[in-house]
Amino acid sequence: QVQLVESGGGLVQAGGSLRLSCAASGRTFSRYNMGWFRQAPGKEREFVAAITWNGGSTNFAYSVSGRFTISRDNAKNTVYLQMNSLKPEDTAVYYCAAASRSGSYSRTSLYDYWGQGTQVTVSS
Questions:
Q1: pLDDT tens string 40-58
Q2: What are phi and psi of 31, to 5 degrees?
Q3: Taken in order 8, 11, 91, 68, is the CA torsion positive or negative?
């Protein structure tokens, strides 16, 4: 069982930056591939970024590529999402998720555990 708690969301002006954190419970965090997703009002949850268990590989949605980075610190059981050059269309609730398997990291069905989410609002 893995529990995930996101933090770091808030209100920021367009062009600004935020860093989200996702703290995981349990001693097996380093075995999980981790992902970030987001969901805007009235829209489906969409993939943002993913990182493999050892940090060796990352994936990004086209819409955030070049602006967002994902990293992890297995000693701290934490995964991060650094968001730069934020746009109003980045406004959403951001969720982190943990996957015990490898596969298509953009698919929500791959992930076993989800956090409760943190709100990010970007004003124009």
A1: 999 999 999 999 999 999 9
A2: -90, -10
A3: negative
pLDDT mean across residues, the chain: 96
Which tokens belong to 67? 């602006």
Distance CA 119, CA 124 (A): 16
Cα separation of 122 and 105, whole Å?
A: 26
Tens of pLDDT, residues 55-75: 999 999 999 999 999 999 999
Exposure class string for 20-44: b at 16+ Cβ within 10 A, else e: bbbbbeeeebeebbbbbbbeeeeee
